Amino acid sequence: MLTWCDTSSHAKIVAPARASLISEDRPFHIVSMDFVIPLPRTRQGNPALLLLQDHFTGFVIAKAKAEVGELEVAKVFEENVFRRFGAPSLVRHDRDPMFMSEVFQKLPEMISRSQEPR
């Protein structure tokens, strides 16, 4: 795109903003998940940080974890995203697809167990 600058009487080229294929239209529609590993251990002995971020609002959930296995990640996701905000349409991550597949295979079992009467 070409724009004109009145003060300097020059034209300049401005790159248009890139359109995203999937746009956020509500909070927790798209969630990013990332791990910060290794960190200095916390007093509780946790060397890892699991970050979940909502793309619409920028809201971040940070959980210090001792492990970043499939079950631990599924628990954090279920307790902090799914129960509070519902299921997102998209979860972005940079982990191995097989790892994330295991995470999301554990979720239905956890959710059904948590809904059983006690």
Automatic annotation (TrEMBL):
Keyword Transferase: yes
Sequence ranges assigned to domain Integrase catalytic in this UniProt record: 23-118
The keyword Transferase is annotated on this UniProt entry: yes
Gene Ontology MF term list: nucleic acid binding; RNA-directed DNA polymerase activity
GO BP terms in the entry: DNA integration
Keywords noted in UniProt: Nucleotidyltransferase, RNA-directed DNA polymerase, Transferase
PANTHER family found in the cross-reference section: PROTEIN CBG26694, PROTEIN NYNRIN-LIKE
Protein name (record): Reverse transcriptase
Native source species: Phytophthora palmivora
